[in-house]
Amino acid sequence: MSTIHKSPWLLHYDGSSCNGCDIEVLACTTPVYDVERFGVINTGNPMHADIFLITGGINSQNAEVVKQIYNQMPQPKVVIAVGTCACTGGIFKECYNIKGGADTVIPVDIYVPGCAARPESIIDGVVKGVALFKEKAAALAAEQKAN
Amino acid sequence: MISSRVITAVCYLLFAPFIIGLLDGFDRKISARMQGRKGPSVLQPFYDLKKLFEKEFLTANKIQLLMIRSYLFFIMLSGVIFFAGFDILLVVFSLSTAAMFLILASTSTHSPYSAQGTHRELVQIMSCEPMELLVAVGFYLAMGTFNVNEIAQGQMSPITFLPGFFVGFVFILTIKFRKSPFDIATSHHAHQEVIKGVTSEMVGKEYGMVTLAEWYENAILLGIVGLFFINSNPVSIVAAIVAILVVWFLEILIDNTSARVKWQLMLKLAWGVTIVAAGMNLFLLEIIRG
What we know:
heterodimer, A: alpha/beta, Rossmann fold, 4 helices, B: mainly alpha, 0% strand
């Protein structure tokens, strides 16, 4: 039986967020919410990460950074956009330097809306992400077997 | 007699990862409770390890995999030497050789994060190595032999003669277990100052092998803690196990109460404790031996 979904390591990247969502993401690791009980670790290294969690919109400067982080993550991987800005660009959408949400540069799997997204909804998104992570792992294993 | 030594070595190879992995799971659970959290399952380290081997393998330099395999091999070799009851000095040298392979693995990718981690790994080796070597010397001075099997068959437990060495060794264990300081080469924890130090560029199975090697190494280190308490009386084995568990708990406590120690302080403290505790003990032993 696959247990890969029991060990989802997170990588958190702050795009051009106002830090509201970032604080809520960090709140998830505190004793009140404790996401580590699901085996989640907040890692700083894309090469060790399974779930890429983006807060804030994408601007001209961070577009390449986000792409590079995404490419450095080994398969299977899941991308979660946390907060309205990461989903659509939010209130900054019309700014001259903002491209929009995270899905303007990389494929996003789960969208967690909210301004700021509440820890409960972030955990909800992560749990959905973990389920998807398991599916992707099974698909990858089947593909490797076929090759 | 020889067959029991072979069995111990085989048991080490087969069961050390399970025992240390489980201790690591309890470590995470106890740490979480100390911080007022629920914490993950005690089997979490095994889930993590299994996942790492299932991830896609991306690498910047293929030589890294060979270096990491050598690292794992030399750690396992050190453990076999130790648990089969051979020379403890050889165990220390073999562990140093293994550490060299880890450094070669991390420098093979030219990543600035790995390079920073490597520098700190070297500082870490510099802080711990004197104490590791002194422990071997201490065992020789107390028991008259470097042979682990003969040390374990002594009339009295080595701790009687080596309390200072024991204190020094337990002190460096915090660093060897990668618990404190927080900006060390690579941390036992997710929180880490410079990405993930020496393991920054290690992906999937490479990082899995490094984790496995660390479990094997921790088994040797806890074995050395036990060796301080073992003598020819079989009851001493219970004392050794109790001592190992107490030291293991103490390390968790130190880890959770000194979360912000930096490497500069680590170097000063590690050498300070080595010189004061082990040095004094060495001096007294020499006087006793006359």
